[in-house]
Amino acid sequence: MKVKSILAEKGSFVATISPDATVTELCALLTEHNIGAAVVSPDGSEVVGIASERDVVRAIAAKGREILDAPVSDLMTGVVAVCEPSNSTDDLMMTMTERRIRHVPVLEEESLSGIISIGDVVRVTVAELQEEKATLLGYITS
After folding, report:
1. How far apart are CA 36 and CA 129, in angstroms?
2. What's this model's pTM, rounded to 2 decimal places?
3. Distance from first CA to last CA of the chain, Å, rounded?
4. SS3 label, residue 76
5. Any idea which fold 3-141 has?
6. 118: nearest Cα among 47, 54, 32, 44
7. pLDDT tens-digit profile of 32-52?
8. Are 133 and 127 in contact (CB under 8 A)?
């Protein structure tokens, strides 16, 4: 399956946050949308980083509570793996596994157009396997 098919199902909403916003504001955004990561973007289109719950926890462990008043740019991951709508879920699984990441922003013509999570990839993969199983069972029993 292609990334564009997943986005067609789930929609193109991406929670973004300014690199100058505080870590406390990031936590509020993640909580508000019940998500694990936000794309760091100065304009909602350009990707300059990604900030996740993991980043927040690690920063608190390393620097203490003071990090909550620091800018998101202090804890974000600056080198972001991205994909395009034409990429396959197999490509995404490899990227996510190799880089040990859970969220991949989707860029179309260098502009943010969606985000794919590991949960999205697992859901699609399970659906494909169930369909394949049903087809094989139908073939065997007929």
Report:
1. 26
2. 0.88
3. 28
4. coil
5. CBS-domain (3.10.580)
6. 54
7. 999 999 999 999 999 999 999
8. no
**Residue 59: how many CB atoms within 10 A of its CB?**
19
Alpha helices in 44-116 (DSSP H): 53-63, 89-99
Structure tokens at 92: 């995404």
Report the C-alpha gap between 54 and 58 in whole angstroms: 6
Q: Where are the domains of the chain?
A: 3-141
Q: Give the model confidence (pLDDT) of 47-89 as tens digits.
A: 999 999 999 999 999 999 999 999 999 999 999 999 999 999 9
Kindly report the length of the chain: 142
Q: What is the pLDDT of residue 20?
A: 98
Tokens representing residue 142 in the block? 């007929």
